[in-house]
Write a structure and sequence with these properties.
Length: about 270
């Protein structure tokens, strides 16, 4: 780290998040977050994000951009504001959802929920980078998780509340995806349709966004697709993988920096 920013140009945080195409991780992460019924109530239903999920995505992207490429002072100010908002988000489930009975309390600063939200960002960014940009070694993946432990601390998580190494992180994700914590009800499914089927873009951009959202479904873990009821088959899977491989080998490496990298990365 430098005195001015939490991350340097050599950090995996900047190396991964400077890539424009890694922006594909956002919708995937959002859909994964919404599969946790208690997190869904706290971070979506309570905050009004159901009405405009893309605005939630934009806020998350702006905040991560600030943390990755901005000054420490700006990052501290922004995350302090988020923590203040999170402290005010309190409630309880009005109906039973999955394994959670009605009356289950939720709080946006609950470390269990914060870790799930953080983990979906990490898992999604790593997957998109490796699928569309390049492979990563174990140590590079671990360095990225170490960077995100810094992010977790900024949002109020303690070091002891997060996996210590990438192997623990992978084990955590596996346990979440195979356990009984995740469940999708009608409201979460409506959110998914809004994110994947109705992106708020101009008509001329629809073909590009439709591909991106098709890729989003393909990038989801199989169980998450099943929870949402997205139809999928091997042919679609091959199509997504083939398109990703083409971009990784024949497009992304040859893009000029002004097209390949996000503006804040170039400025930093």
């Amino acid at each position: 780290m430098t005195n001015d920013s939490y991350f340097t140009d050599e950090s995996m945080m900047r190396r991964i998040h400077r890539e424009r195409i890694v922006g594909l991780f956002g919708p995937r992460a959002l859909l994964m977050q919404a599969t946790h019924p208690v997190a869904f109530a706290g971070f979506f239903a309570h905050t009004g994000a159901l009405e405009d999920p893309y605005e939630r995505l934009n806020r998350t992207a702006r905040m991560m951009d600030t943390i990755a490429f901005g000054s420490k002072a700006t990052a501290d100010s922004g995350t302090k504001m988020v923590r203040t908002i999170h402290r005010k988000v309190r409630g309880q489930l009005l109906e039973p959802t999955g394994r959670y009975p009605a009356g289950t309390p939720y709080a946006a600063d609950d470390p269990v929920l914060l870790l799930w939200v953080l983990a979906t960002l990490v898992d999604s960014a790593l997957l998109v980078y490796q699928r569309y940009v390049g492979s990563l070694t174990r140590d590079q993946r671990n360095s990225f998780w170490m960077d995100y432990r810094v992010v977790g601390r900024l949002f109020g998580l303690k070091a002891s509340q997060m996996p210590r190494e990438i192997e623990e992180f992978d084990a955590y994700m596996e346990a979440m995806l195979t356990g009984d914590d995740l469940y999708v009800d009608g409201a979460a499914r409506k959110l998914a349709v809004g994110v994947v089927m109705k992106p708020p873009v101009d008509l001329y951009l629809r073909p590009l966004l439709e591909y991106a959202n098709f890729a989003t479904v393909g990038l989801l873990p199989a169980r998450i697709r099943e929870l949402y009821g997205f139809s999928w088959d091997p042919a679609r899977g091959l199509s997504v993988r083939g398109g990703a491989e083409y971009l990784k080998r024949a497009v992304v490496p040859f893009l000029p920096g002004r097209l390949r990298y996000v503006p804040s990365a170039r400025a930093a």
